Amino acid sequence: MLLLVLGLACLPANAQESTAPVAEDPVVPTDVIVPADEFDRGTPQRSADGFMRTVDKGDYETAAQYLDLRNLRGSASELTGAQLARRFFVIIKRADWVDVNELIDDPAGRSNDNLPAYRDSLGIIEHSGKETRLYMQKVPRGDGVSIWKVSNATVSLIPKLYETYGYPEIIEELRRNLPNRVILGYEVFKWVVVGTAALFAYVLIFLIALITRRVLGDPKAPSHRRIFRFLVLPFGLWLVIIAMNITASSLGSGVTAEAWRRLTVWMMFAGTNLLQEIYSTRLRDKGRRGAAVLMGPAGNAIKIVIAIAAILLYMDKLGVNITTVLAGLGVGGIAVALALQKPMEDVFGAFTLYTQQPIRVGDFCRIGDQTGTIEEIGLRTTRMRTLANTVIAIPNAQLANAPIDNISARRKIRFRPILRLRYDTTPEQLQQILDGIRDLLSSNEHVLEESQRVRFTEISDEALLIEVNAYLNTTDWAKYLEMAEQLNLHILKIIALAGTSLFIPTRILYADGNANRGELPV
Questions:
Q1: Fold entry, domain 359-408
Q2: What is the dihedral angle through the alpha carbons of 200, 205, 208, 209, rounded to the nearest 10 degrees?
């Protein structure tokens, strides 16, 4: 999915942003004849497009053919055509454009702009707190044919505009001392400046990553190593691309904008992976392995959201109406949601089980009328091995709403026998039994002191009731049974020493001799 998103980011269509005027694709009216010209300067649009195409190649001598160099005023007359072309290109790229006018592909120019017929507007830029309009102008070629060039009035303003939008002196000095060559559409001095900014930014990020690793503690800890790798690679490269983009934009080109977008998606994916690993490790250290398993699907869900957002943004850049796409996704999402209603209920039930953790794998619990040990908690069902050694699968949606008696969650087990003594037990014998059981519980190391209670609670219709209440210091059921067995044996001995015994349920039948044969009333 990451490769798909990055691949879409590489599409060069309309994704590249620029504040400079960009010539549209020529649309030649069928009833207009464009004059033939060596440099294709027959219309305002073609002339502007030819100038930008030529300076992009670094051919400033040819680019000067698109400037009207006649009757220049001021310091512009002291510069060569190539110098003026290069500076005008820098101004176009770096200027603060207030308005950009669309040029048309018509030899007559635009007729509804309140300008002379021989002049068209390129746009308005901000200069010294004022708005300055730049013009294209129809000029004679010398053979009776008129062509379009950047007007001499605009060319005369280039030196003053360059003072505002030109490069700092240190970069100008670097430009003069390096070869005037273009590599991959970028001048050599720009490669040097952008590369230096990138190197400085990466060294700074690397030092910050080292300091962060030291501040966190043990540099060899797995989580600290992951944080270091994240800072050095995705996050570090992301900041480097930002630095390169800022530097390139200040030089008059934003060619790194698309790389910045691609690395932003990569950085977000890597950041999601980092957070997923850190929280999974913490949950495992706390013994919450079930919740740690949930981090995988949660991380994937976040990545899917990031990928969908990135794809929609690039589709918007490509000119696709994403409102329609979102509407389609909404309708399709409703249909999918209805189809997956039951499975999603189970998934959300699993989320509840993982986060709230009423049960864990290995717990012995009672769910409804089923009792057994939890073997697996999946996204759809939870598997339990019952006391009959069978395995049942309970849907998580049902489990999340069912009362759960987690027997393994007990920190102690209650010991609570009810003793039913005979009616002929004397008060002295009863007191002896009470004292003996109390001494037994107090002296037993497995019986917790809290909540020890031995009371003669009731004179029932059949027996004298003594209630024994105590908690045994164990959570293992087998050990509890062993401890309870020993306590019960000692209690029987105490009752025997007191000279009495437990009540034995009896039933007396009275027969009436006068009743019909075979009928014995009770």
A1: SH3 type barrels. (2.30.30)
A2: -140
